[in-house]
Protein: 4-oxalocrotonate decarboxylase
Organism: Rhodopila globiformis
Amino acid sequence: MSTLVEFARIVDEAARTASAIPQLTETHPALSAEEAYAVQALSVARRRTRGEKRAGYKMGLTSRAKMQQVGVSEVIWGRLTDAMRVEEGGELSRARFVHPRAEPEIAFIMRRPLEGRVTAAEALAAVEAVSPAIEIIDSRYKDFRFALPDVIADNSSSSGFLLGAWYRPETDVANLGLLVEVDGQVVQVGSSAAILGHPLRSLVAAARLIAAAGERLEPGDIVLAGGATAAHALSPGQFVRAEFEGLGSVSFTVVS
Ligand code: 0L1
Ligand code: MG
């Protein structure tokens, strides 16, 4: 256990100070996914001790594009805190991150608790609203390279998120065209169907996977369903905008 506590300190300090670290599996190749989720929980507990509040969960590696980009092939999850929220239309400070990337997502906010094995209909009935979103991911590992346990321990690269307007839960988000522009140039084009075939499937997976850690989705939790395209690297001066068919856009400016 003390090794896991030390790993939690290492990944948390790397995130807090925006410093790149070597992969944990370099020195501990036997680190399991289960142990890595324990490290994640311990590192987020450190954030809570500093005053950060629970905001929900993120699902990761939910599209083929994302799996190919990082060479890992399993859906993973991480925890969100209020300190990760960036105001829509606002500024994102590059200095707070090691090597941030942005990806377009669909977000849910929960109306009712959701837990364990549920159907898509049960998941939808627990949703208060859906919104277009951008996730800011930032691996704390050198060169954005990691094995599956490394990235899980590093809170599945959670580091920021922006939410657009909220829409009624029955809004059809199954196959919405979307694009990401940087300074007016299109850099990614995709569809929300890339998120496990339907973003709602990601919510179903979230309820099941989170239950394995003894947790459940609570009213007010935000769930980021996963990236619909590969993620785009961010640099100071960029104006980033994601446009979602029928749901409007979400944007921010990267400052130093
Ligand atoms: O949100 C994601 O799909 C990212 C999960 C972790 C892998 C990465 O950092 O790209
Ligand atoms: Mg993501």
Q: What stands out?
A: The chain has a mean pLDDT of 96. The helical segments are 2-17, 24-27, 33-49, 64-70, 120-125, 148-153, 199-211. The chain is about 25% helix and 30% strand. The longest strand covers residues 127-137.
